[in-house]
# Entry
Amino acid sequence: MRIGIDGACLANGRGYGRFTRELLRALLAAASDHQFAVYGDRDSLAAAELDAPNLGIVHVRQKVSPAHAAAADGYRSPIDMLRLTHAVWRDRPDVFWSPSVYTYFPLPPGLPSLVTIHDTITERYPELTMPTRRARLFWNAKVRLALAQSTLVLTVSEFAAAEIEQILGVSRARLRVAGEAAAPTFRPGTPSDARAAARAAGVPDDAAWFTYVGGFTPHKHVDRIVRAHAALIEEARATGAPAPFLVLVGTTSADNFHGVGAGIHEAIADCDTADYVRWTGFLPDAQLRHLLTGTAALVLPSANEGFGLPAVEAAACGAPVVATTASPLPQLLEGGGHFVAPGDTAGLLSAMRALLDPHERARLGAVALERASRLTWRASARATLAALDDVVAIGRRAAPVPAVS
# Structure
């Protein structure tokens, strides 16, 4: 097959950017008999550093990179989108894959296509993820167009598939699932490297630390992590034990979605815990790996997660997780952490407290590592290729039969 791919989100630092980069690399390796053409602006395509004999790069001029203009309150020029549409129409691939609805652009009519929808968080919590009514209107229009044009819909978990069926009305027959996995960089490091990474983040040598990795949008409930962490500090002070630290990993200046803050700074100020909270900004994977290796837990108590990749990456480093039950993580990492319902502040505190025990942390971390090792991008690539085969087969069945004279 000749497979066209929207490459506009390759440079994005959020989960769907990681999904696109890792899955595309796995596809190129697993399907050497197929030809791939990735369409996008130069900045987005250069950031991915892709190179394979079966890969073609199609540069399409854009006034503003879609990775920045496509989300939140940004604006994509219709001319920019039509340039992408025209480039795909000109090349006429057999099938087209959009790895994320965030950067979706109109496809040529009749082109068999697969669109990836990672979750229904924006539909469930529009006020927490899109800052303005205008942004929400554009988002809804984009999702409706993507669903109308796509032959099939790909998602990242059975949990997400059930929500897409329920909330977006996509029939289960049109849904396919290709999971995610940790990148090869994420693996357990040494205790000395873990302690050095924590020290570089500002954590004293005698202190434990919890880690959050991701965006700082309101639905992530980072403010609740801050409040649970504050309670642990008070408990430590009462017993004379070293207080645990909280390390927040993620960009605070380049998030294209809801404005950073989400009550986090207010919660820190209200709890008076600024001396025990560290903001690292973006960390390269090699450095993040060591920080995760030694963390008491990766904490992800979001309102909802379609997959929860930061938790799986932490588990691949041997770290247990404290994660939301509104996700596939209780099944994916079963026995590898504590899972709490969104908004269960008492449960969050109890789970974090339990993982300050080194023996409990080691026990659950070993299970988390084993569970994460079962997930591979190779398996995700096989599932995606099977979905693309289905798209082409459906397209052939739907094509008109030539008249016989």
